[in-house]
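Let us practice reading a record.
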Amino acid sequence: MTTTVLILVVGVLVVLTAVYISWRAGRLDRLHIRLETAQAALDASLLMRAAVCLELAGSRILDPATSLVLAASAHEARTAGPDEREHAESDLSRALRAVVGQDRFRERLAEHPAGPELLDELDAAVAKVVYSRRFYNNAVDVTRTAQRRWLARTLRLAGHTEYPRFFEIDDAPPAALAAE
């Protein structure tokens, strides 16, 4: 009788351990999916911001030098490789703050027929970049924490994937847009 009970207890422990390990592996997989989704959303919002900046630069509302600087920064952000992307996006943020911080920026946009619509698009794109980056970095933090747990490391539940990297850029919105 005691041998049967011992085998039953060991069997239950093995099954519970297997279920727990499977649950942890599934959670890690779901976290990686969440991370990929957050990265896609961040990429989309960064591309949208660059597109709105290019549209603003090509609208003939701004003076030629300002348009050229903004267009060059937006183009660089769109075409930058993975290693230069954070730097290029930060440069676009700084160029955007310089453009929006100019004297009479809002008045010049209000005088143009497409100006108010461009300003609304720009405001939405800038805000979306801030939120998308925060969401992505949150997903990176949670995923890295799960990957560092002893069970995940010991059993290689994450496979051979590298730790995800945070996306650190200067994404502070222009003061004129943040005030609204």
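A brief commentary: The helical segments are 2-57, 64-79, 85-100, 105-111, 115-148, 150-154, 175-178.
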